[in-house]
Design brief:
The complex is a heterodimer of chains A (about 290) and B (about 180). By secondary structure, chain A is α+β, with helices and mostly antiparallel strands. Chain A folds into 3 domains: about 5-55, Uridine Diphospho-n-acetylenolpyruvylglucosamine Reductase, domain 2 (2-Layer Sandwich), CATH 3.30.43.10; about 60-170, 2-Layer Sandwich (Uridine Diphospho-n-acetylenolpyruvylglucosamine Reductase, domain 3); about 180-290, 2-Layer Sandwich (Enolase-like, domain 1). Chain A has helices at about 15-25, 35-40, 75-80, 85-90, 90-95, 105, 110-115, 125-130, 240-250, 265-290; strands at about 5-10, 25-30, 50, 60-65, 70, 135-140, 140-145, 150-155, 155-160, 165-170, 180-185, 195-205, 210-215, 225. In chain B, strands 1, 2, 3, 4, 5 and 6 form a 6-stranded mixed β-sheet that branches. Chain B contains 5 helices and 6 strands; from the N terminus they run βββαβββαααα. Classes of the chains: A alpha+beta (about 290), B alpha+beta (about 180). The interface of A and B includes residues 5 and 33 of A. Chain A: InterPro entries: CO_DH_flav_C, CO_DH_flav_C_dom_sf, Diverse_Substr_Oxidored, FAD-bd_PCMH, FAD-bd_PCMH-like_sf, FAD-bd_PCMH_sub1, FAD-bd_PCMH_sub2, Mopterin_DH_FAD-bd. Chain A: This is FAD binding domain-containing protein. Chain A: Keywords: FAD, Flavoprotein, Oxidoreductase.
């Protein structure tokens, strides 16, 4: 349970960190390390070099405006969760962050690190995809924006190149006509979820549902978003439309079996959570509309 | 420029070694270690501070929890080089300089909050920081506070009681006597 040897550097500028990455195709970025260090200790990963970005200045911001929430590469989960403006502008980020591991892990782990670790069992990747967010990726060649829809390509695999550092994530603001909810089921408090669902429900001024989208974690190899609007074509939410939504979701999902749960059990959880979370997001949507009125 | 550039090579392994200053419980220690030295191992092996216990060594059990700039973190999920220059508090730093138990330690003793004691250092550091953020927790909040720490002996009931008792003790003795002050 000790990492294999690696060379360690702690650059104090972003340019220097990017140059170190570009120089060694086998180097990895170390930010919070709450996923990377266990992988190193178990020797599931053995990079030749670690580029520790914790001394790089101006990467720990949580900035909000009416467009959304911008989270820097060194902002810890705990700092994002504690930010009242972030909670106001995009409440789904806070709802999901409360379910990321335990407070002690959130004190060190970074939100951007979790996003680019690209674990389909993690909370934040599916939230980024569901909200249509993006990340900013920097390299010696310059910076580019990667849309969430283009970020995840396989288990623990993203389209971030080895020589790039994700310097910022952008979570779009909650539209005024929308409500959100998040829930997951885990064996133990703080564990990876067996299944988790995030939902965004939108409705017009009369309260008629216009759009329902749900994101699924721990169900497939990728964070998966399903458009469930069709089940609510009548504009209302009742037991029948929720059942139809769960059917629609499962038609698009192919829950996998693993050591933690059978495929059938996971499908059952996806069904139950779809109905529960869509109902909560609809309640949230209604409460926000009536709160504004 | 880069900090903590390697200063020497280990003659046996050929690994780069780094000279690192670790600030632990108010004392500065100078160590020469490879980049891969976990903070938990640096505390125990290089500094001899064996109060920090290593259980699962992958962040699940919480036994190795220490305070980094006052915030609880897993010492097994950090490299010691990354902690250079930052203030660390281990379980050895929770008692008063004269050896009197801190409020959380005293509460664990009174409430029988430990049996074998292996997990205890991680609970004590976690609760010390938790009570600073929330000095008067409800029983539910006490459970939430210790949710990231595993104990295989007690069944947690007495640890929850100890959290509430520690809050009570801290309220009765709101401040530590200053050095030289009569208790």
């Amino acid at each position: 349970m000790k990492p294999a040897p690696f060379s360690y550097s702690r650059p104090t500028t972003l340019d220097e960190a990017l140059a170190s990455l570009a120089a060694d195709p086998d180097a990895k970025v170390l930010a919070g390390g709450q996923s990377l260090v266990p992988l190193l200790s178990m020797r599931l990963a053995a990079p030749s070099a670690l580029v520790d970005i914790n001394a790089v200045p101006d990467l720990d911001h949580v900035r909000t405006d009416e467009k959304g929430v911008r989270v820097g590469a060194l902002a810890r989960h705990a700092a994002v969760l504690a930010d009242p403006e972030a909670r106001r502008v995009q409440p789904l980020v806070s709802l999901a962050l409360q379910r990321v591991a335990h407070p002690t892990i959130r004190n060190r782990g970074t939100t951007v690190g979790s996003l680019v670790h690209a674990d389909a069992s993690a909370e934040m990747p599916v939230v980024l995809v569901l909200l249509g967010g993006s990340i900013t990726a920097a390299s010696v060649a310059g910076t580019r924006t990667i849309e969430a829809a283009d970020l995840y390509v396989g288990p623990l695999e993203s389209t971030l190149r080895h020589d790039e550092i994700a310097t910022e994530a952008f979570f779009p603001a909650l539209p005024g006509d929308a409500g959100v909810a998040f829930d997951e089921i885990a064996r133990r408090h703080g564990d990876y979820a067996l299944c988790g669902v995030a939902a965004v429900v939108r409705a017009d001024e009369a309260g008629s549902i216009t759009s329902v989208r749900a994101g699924y974690l721990s169900v497939s190899d990728l964070p998966t978003v399903v458009d469930l609007s069709e089940a609510f074509a009548a504009g209302t939410l009742d037991d029948a439309s929720l059942d139809a939504a769960a059917d629609l979701a499962l038609a698009s999902l192919d829950p996998a079996a693993d050591i933690h749960a059978t495929a059938d059990y996971r499908a059952h959880l996806a069904r139950v959570l779809t109905k529960r979370v869509v109902r909560q997001a609809h309640d949230d949507c209604t409460a926000r509309r009536e709160g504004d009125a | 420029m880069s900090t903590d550039a390697p200063t020497q090579t280990d003659p046996d392994t050929g690994e780069d070694l780094h000279d690192v200053r670790l600030h632990v419980n108010g004392i500065v220690h100078q160590v020469r270690i490879p980049g891969r030295r976990l903070l938990s191992d640096a505390l125990r092996h290089d500094l001899g501070l064996t109060g920090t216990h290593v259980g699962c060594e992958h962040g699940v059990c919480g036994a190795c929890t220490v305070l980094l700039e006052g915030q609880p973190v897993r010492a097994c999920l950090m490299f010691a080089v990354s902690a250079a220059g930052q203030e660390l508090t281990t379980v050895e730093g929770l008692a008063a300089p004269d050896g009197r138990l801190g409020p959380v330690q005293q509460a664990f003793k009174e409430c029988h909050g430990l049996q074998c004691g292996f997990c205890t250092p991680g609970f004590l550091t976690t609760i010390t920081a938790g009570l600073r953020d929330n000095p008067d927790p409800t029983e539910d909040e006490a459970r939430e506070m210790i949710g990231g720490n595993l104990c295989r002996c007690t069944g947690y009931q007495n640890i929850v009681s100890a959290v509430c008792r520690a809050a009570e003790i801290a309220r009765l003795e709101p401040s530590e006597p200053l050095e030289g002050e009569q208790p």
